[in-house]
Design brief:
This protein has eight helices and 18 strands. The chain folds into two domains: about 140 residues, no CATH class; about 180 residues, Nucleotidyltransferase, domain 5 (2-Layer Sandwich), CATH 3.30.420.10. By secondary structure, it is of the alpha+beta class.
Length: about 350
């Protein structure tokens, strides 16, 4: 286990290309609880059950390695390598002592199939010690991206869509539907209604969103997609929040593509909590990150600040059968139907 994981410190020897939330470091009482929690899974600094071979990920820049002869290798930014040989042990060291290394020399690349991940434990101006994993490092070739558009050609307004949104909007609108949506935005008549469905027995959930004209009372397009999340954690709330995020992303890309600066739309949903959390201001701090589905709330908030038009939200009663039925109730029924399919 990496020392930084145990002590709650930033590991300066390993970097990630992911953009992490910048929040203050939690107080020491948090890390005391964290270390008590780890005692159920570790013996000292070793996991009771191995997580398996270390695998390279596209977001992780792993620099330090060791081979079976305890020679330490450092991969530099230009893909060149430095080789470090352990210093001769002194009389006080035992076979359990950490080996010490000093400044190395440039060398040709080692055979990657024989490398073990290594972590810098202590570092001084002259020498350092390392911790070496007992499982080898497996460097997987990057896989080709899957076809997340469900074998459909995305419209020009959605070109270069990030993988996450390709997954979320697996059935994108057509070019004509994007154009019709843009016109309704500029005329301030665009309606959108999103609903979600969840099958807890199968651990799957999805959403459906219907775009329509508020003036002509006719449907423009519909979008449906799966919900990202662990099967045992997906809920109807996350499904409806995913629909809101997908709707906002589509409106953002359409406004960007057609250079729309002014306009309006109304977003309906039968989940008051999903609407409120997506559009209310988030209080700064670390507490929101402990709440379920905060990742989607953050996405919704980021998109709201990017969208140049006015967005109003309104709750609509789902499965309404009363005397005062309105057009938004029809849209909600359609969104519920395609989400359930």
């Amino acid at each position: 286990m990496l020392p930084s994981v145990l002590y709650g410190e930033r590991d300066i020897h390993h970097t990630s290309v992911l953009l992490w939330p910048t929040v203050p470091r939690p107080p020491e009482a948090f890390w005391t609880s964290w270390r008590m929690f780890l005692q159920h899974f570790t013996r000292g600094r070793t996991l009771m059950t191995s997580l398996g071979p270390w695998k390279s990920r596209t977001h992780l820049n792993w620099r330090w390695f060791s081979d079976s002869q305890h020679i330490v290798w450092e991969q530099l930014g230009d893909n060149s390598w430095k080789r470090y040989v352990a210093l001769a042990p002194n009389r006080r060291q035992t076979r359990h002592s950490s080996k010490k290394y000093q400044e190395g020399d440039m060398a040709s690349s080692p055979p990657t199939t024989q490398l073990y991940p290594a972590t810098i434990e202590s570092h001084s101006s002259e020498q350092f010690t390392v911790s070496i994993s007992s499982t080898r490092f497996v460097d997987h070739a990057p896989q080709s991206p899957p076809d997340l558009w469900r074998h459909t050609t995305p419209p020009a307004a959605l070109s270069d869509t990030p993988t996450f949104f390709q997954h979320l909007i697996s059935t994108p609108p057509t070019d004509q539907e994007c154009l019709d949506t843009a016109q309704e935005i500029q005329e301030k008549h665009l309606l959108a209604c999103s609903d979600g469905a969840c099958d807890s027995s199968r651990g799957i959930s999805s959403y459906g969103t219907v775009f329509a004209s508020g003036l002509l009372k006719q449907q423009i397009s519909s979008v449906v997609g799966p919900v990202d999340g662990h099967p045992s954690l997906v809920t109807s709330y996350r499904a409806e929040l995913s629909g809101i995020v997908a709707t906002l992303y589509l409106v953002y890309r359409i406004c960007l593509f057609y250079n729309i600066r002014k306009g309006a739309m109304t977003l309906y949903c039968d989940n008051k909590g999903a609407l409120a959390n997506a559009f209310k201001t988030i209080k700064p701090g670390i507490t929101p990150y402990f709440k379920t589905d905060h990742d989607l709330v953050e996405l919704a908030q980021a998109l709201i600040h990017l969208i140049p038009i006015l967005i109003t939200t309104s709750w609509v009663k789902g499965h309404y059968t009363g005397k005062h039925r309105q057009y938004q109730h029809d849209l909600n029924d359609k969104a519920d139907k395609i989400a359930g399919q």
